[in-house]
Amino acid sequence: QVQEGRDDMFAAEILKSLPQFSAASIGGLMAMMMGALENIDASSSLDADEAAEQTEEAAKREKVQKQAELLLEKMSGIERGDKIVDTQDDKTIGQVLSTPAPGTNVVLAQMRLDRVGLTTTKTPWKKTNKVRVGDTEYRYLPYTPIWWPIVDSETGKGRPPEPIKTEESPEEKVANEEA
């Protein structure tokens, strides 16, 4: 119950708007994550403790690499038009628009705004939500394209951004006082 309250706080406070990424940003994130899994050559001048620690780290990296490969293999079966179903209530909440690019686990999908935290709803997005595509369950992180407008949470429609407040220069203050 404490955890549930924490998720509600997370959804309400932190996710007032979804993160915004460009296609290049997502590609960069994927490259960094996959690059972190590459093996690092061991130096021949390591002492026994350092060598054991490096062997343990290599085993962890190999385990994560195998999990990533399994995920990529599962995701290779995703097709354009596949329905995305929320596992909480078995309702369709989206549709796949573009299959994952080779070597990535990023899917472009059209999602219901009320199910990803952009509009007021009884079933807000939580970081522990899972969806099903075909027979496989996935956790997901929704994001909006960098070019999207700010979405009004009541109407679901785009709204203009808030004007940026700037301090007036001394000259502007004098001009405003005279006017």
Description:
- With 179 residues, the chain is an alpha+beta fold.
- The protein has helices spanning 2-14, 23-35, 48-75, 170-178, and strands at 20-21, 83-86, 92-98, 108-111, 130-133, 136-139, 144-145, 150-151, 158-159.
- Strands 4-3-2-5-6 form a five-stranded antiparallel β-sheet, with no helix packed on it. A two-stranded parallel ribbon has the order 1-7.
Task: Note the topology.
Blueprint: H1 2-14, E1 20-21, H2 23-35, H3 48-75, E2 83-86, E3 92-98, E4 108-111, E5 130-133, E6 136-139, E7 144-145, E8 150-151, E9 158-159, H4 170-178
Parallel strand pairs: 1-7
Antiparallel strand pairs: 2-3, 2-5, 3-4, 5-6, 8-9
What structural keywords apply?
179 residues, alpha+beta, two-stranded parallel sheet, 4 helices, 35% helix, 17% strand, disordered N terminus
Low-confidence sequence ranges: 1-16
Characterize the biggest β-sheet: 5 strands, antiparallel
Strand % is 15-25%
What is the helix fraction of residues, given as a range? Answer: 25-40%
Mean pLDDT: 76
Distance between the termini: 59 Å
